[in-house]
Amino acid sequence: xxxxxxxxxxxxxxxxxxxxxxxxxxxxxxxxxxxxxxxxxxxxxxxxxxxxxxxxxxxxxxxxxxxxxxxxxxxxxxxxxxxxxxxxxxxxxxxxxxxxxxxxxxxxxxxxxxxxxxxxxxxxxx
Length: 126
Fold this sequence. Notes:
Helix content is about 75%, strand content about 0%. With about 130 residues, it is mainly alpha-helical.
């Protein structure tokens, strides 16, 4: 359920700049932020994979299910944060196509962690 809510929120992040009619600023400061936001977005998605596929299974194996569930939620939040960076970029005046990469990174980060497919082999769900 949490996963579905976060995927839906990414869809809202994509729609929000379109619905609010943000004015594209061709010479704006968004150009200075594009590379750092993209780098941090990639970093957070990789961090989410590390938490989900290395830390969460270890906690499950130790019988610490509550901590495992918390680490799973943190991994989803880290993946979603890339899409939030895309929203920030779009809201400060970047053309939509410039923010699209961050939206896609966030969405794919969540997609890879789909609860039905991301469960470690031989272990229960977080």
